[in-house]
Amino acid sequence: MTANISYSIDKKTAKIPTPPISKAYKDDMNRYDEVLVSLRRIIRATDMHSKKLSKISGLTSPQLLILQTLRLHSELTVGELARKISLSQATVTTIIDRLEKRNFVKRERGSVDKRKVFVYLTPEADTALLNAPKPLQESFVQQFQDLRDWEQTMILAALERVAHMMDAQHIDASPVLDLGQLDRIDPSH
C-alpha cells in the first residue's frame, strides 16, 4: 500500500520539499548511525594502535604477528606460517620478504627435504620483539575470554553478519587488529 502524497515546487526557491520522515524511520537511522559510529571507533582504535606500534617498533601488526609466531615455533615453512596466522601464502611471502630485507628473518632450505624452505628469526628480530608494545588484540582477547559463552557467540555472529553486509567475507585477514596493507611499512624506503 503506497501513500498518495503530492508535492509542489516552491517557485521562489525552486526546491522540492522533502517528504515527512516517520518516527520509526528516524529510530532506524539513529540505530544505523550508532552502528556506524561504533564501527568508526573500532577502526580508529585499530589505526591509532597500528601507528603507535609502527612508531615504537617500526613494525606493522602483521609483521609483529609473524615474528611472534616464529618465536613460538622453531621451524616453519611460509605455507605453515600462513596457515597458523590465517593469511594467504602470497601475503605472508611479501611480509617475509620485507622482514628479510630488514634482517629480522632468514630463509634456509631444509636439510632433509631440500624443496622445503624454512623461515627463522634472527637476533635482530629478538631485539625488536623485546621492544615492541603489546598487540591490541592481546587486550581484546583477554576481555573477550572474560565474557560468557552466549555473549561471545552473539558478538561473533553480529560481526560475521556485519562483515557479510560490507561484502568483506572473502578478504584476506588474520586474527590481528591492523588497518591497511599488511606489509606497508618499510623504513628502508
TrEMBL record:
GO annotation (BP), single: response to stress
CDD domains named among the record's database cross-references: HTH_ARSR
A GO term, aspect molecular function: DNA-binding transcription factor activity
Domain of life: Bacteria
Pfam family, one: MarR
SUPFAM superfamilies for the chain: Winged helix' DNA-binding domain (SSF46785)
Domain HTH marR-type, first and last residues per copy: 32-164
Xref: SMART domains: HTH_MARR (SM00347)
Name under which the protein is recorded: Putative transcription regulator, MarR family protein
Organism listed in the record: Thalassolituus oleivorans MIL-1
Lineage of the species this protein comes from: Bacteria, Pseudomonadati, Pseudomonadota, Gammaproteobacteria, Oceanospirillales
